[in-house]
Every structure is written in structure tokens, then in C-alpha cells.
TrEMBL record:
InterPro entries: His_Pase_superF_clade-1 (IPR013078), His_PPase_superfam (IPR029033), PGM_Phosphatase (IPR050275)
Name of this chain's protein: Phosphoglycerate kinase
Keyword field contains Transferase: yes
Key words, A-Z: Kinase, Transferase
A Pfam cross-reference name: His_Phos_1
Source organism: Ramlibacter tataouinensis
Amino acid sequence: MKLWLVRHALPVVAEGVCYGASDVPADDQATREAAQRLAAGLPPGLAVSSSPLARCLQLADALQGLRSDLAYRSDARLSEMNFGAWEQQRWDAIAPAEFERWTADFAHHACGGGESVAQLMARAAAALAEARHRGADSLWITHAGVIRAVSLLAAGVTLPRNAADWPREGLGFGQAACIQLV
């Protein structure tokens, strides 16, 4: 089975702001352009799921408008990591000691009192298990954190040992990647 992973288009948020689970919209033009690229390149009849956050739903709606065969369902497990009190704060305004606490216990520390990487990984693993069970090629419209979690899970890593194990490279806004799942 193949799983296409798509990251939402450029969000409308100030650069350098932590917006994880915050429901910020995406740029309309960037969303239209991403939907057009995707519509031209995706195979027919994919099972489509989207994060319920606005920036993903915008892309799911635009894509469905261009390709009626790509009707989607919303799946909260595809939401971005919740950074708690860090949400809507500038990354450079978060105390270095807070980052140190996170990196010291990267998998289990709940950033800003929100969600831990382990919780994000568990959500992504549950959605991935369901997709594998269905066995149909699928498309997820989601976020960088979920995409990175899925890349680890697809490689057999259920939980990163430390921050250095977390994938550094990810998809750009509005970009897609396809992975083969066994």
C-alpha cells in the first residue's frame, strides 16, 4: 500500500511563531497552487484523510474541488503537536531552560504543558495501523510533526530515543511525498 503525505500550504502566521495545534489558516493563493499541483499528479480513488485544522482543511477542500474522486474525511489524529503554553509564542521568547527540559526527555516531556512526542507518535501510529488495515492507497493532508512521526514509524522506530533521532528534514509547505508501507 502507498501512503501519500501532504503538508498544508504556507500558514498565515508571523515567522518565528510556534503555531502547532493553533488553528491558523493557510495562504489562499499558496493553497490553490498546491491543490493544482496535487490534483495533476495524484492517482485516482485514494482514501483521503485530513487534519481538522483549518490550514489542512483548506487544502483538502481545494483538492476535492479539482478532483471529486478525492473526497476526504477529517481525522483528529493527523493534527499537529500541541505545544500548550508555547502556542502562539515566538520560539525565541521561550526560555532556554524549557527547551533543555524538552531535549533532556524528548519523547515524554509535554512542551508547554501540551503534548509529548510520545503522544504524537501514538496518534500517528494508530492512524497508520488503521490505514494499513484498510489496505487501500491513501493520502493524508497533515503537518510537519505528523509527517516526521510517520517517517520514523515506517522505518520501524516507535519512539525516538532523543532529540537527535527526530528527522530534521521534512516536507515544504504544500509539498507531497509517497511512502510504500508493508
